[in-house]
Amino acid sequence: MKASVRIFRSLTTLFVVSLLMLTPTGTAMADPFGNFVAPVPDPDLYLPTPLGEPWFDPPAGYEQQPPGSVLATRPVTVGPLLTPVTSTQILFRTNDSKDRPVAGVTTVIVPSAPWTGRGSRPVVAYNMAINSLGNTCAPSWTLPRGIAREIPAVQAFLAKNYAVVVTDHEGPRQAYAAGRMAAHAVLDALRAMVRVPQIGVSASSPIAVTGYSGGAIATGWAAQLAPTYAPEVNLVGAAFGGPPTDYRILLTSMNGTVASTLFLSAALGVAREYPEMFSLMNANGLRLATVAKDMCVSLLAPGGAIAPIPAQALSDVPNVDRTEIARNVIAATRLGGDLAPTVPTMIYQGQQEFWIPREGAETLYDEWCAHGADVRLEEYLGEHLIVAISGIPGAYAWIDDRLAGIPAPTGCSSFGR
């Protein structure tokens, strides 16, 4: 049987499964069958289906406002939480990966109890591992419905009386794994937050940014772009773990394995910011984009067990990952390089990682240190899911110290490398 036929059958299976598993709160594709049978290489066809909620639509002329401008606000109820809070969602102006104006959304959660510590109430910008392609997967949708998977982490910071900011860092196109879009969204959310008086967070509040895995993409990029993109944001530190830093590495670790659908979904998310990538896709590549365009991680992740499709099989271009388009996009989405944070940063990583190898974190550490950044790298026994838990105590204690104004050690140091 030809490889293209096997892939078509695998995609058909995924397509049927996805249609059966879409929940009533999900959104349907305009013509899923038609575009699956005869796909068209139009990037707009592979954007997430709109929610149909007018609040998410930016007002006319918003593009002329500066990044971080507040476009709309609304109160929301977030849960389940143990700490009494007041929560506000903000629609704000930001930039996409190519510095084009777009609207972003963030959810700001503030404990009802007054801050009694020194200075202004600290803030944690917590970046969830959204790792998804649909609008109903974003935190602004899942938090008010009580279905956000990482709500325990939010609660942990709220219990310390910190304010917590959870941003839809994939942007309005749900551009999974597009680091520049994520950084802009996170930093502009923090700009917008202090421009809403009723939230009660001061511009002088110390801010730490954190996240794991997909959330580490947003965190690492926010840390390294902050000095040039949003120098006025009062970041005091960044801590993140399990970072996918370089898609050239992931091409060897995730591509064509049981993790392949997550890798291919990230490729589609990035293509939403860099639509020139669609010119590299064959019909099966476009079919996969049709199937996955509104999926959340709970449906995306298991797909590799059904169809461990390599990215190269979804293009008719020889050595597609070595084309000029692919090289440029991989370079544009790679953490590190000539960019580095100016605030203290902590990275934690599993020594036995197989999907997101330690090579990426170690290279990032070396590059940031070479640029004079203050970086702590801690490597623990275990793979990705284990270190997602075991790395929390050290990372959160590190964040507590930065928010308390305790200086981080200067220079670079590592543990377990």
Q: Give the percentage of residues in beta strands.
A: 15-25%
Calculate the terminal CA-CA distance, rounded to whole Å. Answer: 46 Å
Q: What pattern of helices and strands is seen along the backbone?
A: HHEEEEHHEHEHEHHHHHHEHEHHE
As residue ranges, the low-confidence spans are 15-29
Largest sheet: 10 strands, mixed
- Mean pLDDT across all amino acids: 92
Number of strands: 10
How many separate helices? Answer: 15
Q: What's the arrangement of strands in the largest beta sheet?
A: 1-2-3-5-4-6-7-8-9-10
* General form: globular
- Amount of helix: 25-40%
Structural class: alpha/beta
Rg on CA atoms, Å: 21 Å
Brief characterization of the structure:
This protein has 15 helices and 10 strands. With 417 residues, the chain is an alpha/beta fold. A 10-stranded mixed beta sheet has the order 1-2-3-5-4-6-7-8-9-10, with helices on both faces.
Explain the overall architecture.
By secondary structure, this protein is an alpha/beta fold. It is 35% helix and 16% strand. A 10-stranded mixed beta sheet has the order 1-2-3-5-4-6-7-8-9-10, with helices on both faces. The N and C termini lie far apart (46 Å). The model is unreliable at 15-29 (pLDDT under 50).
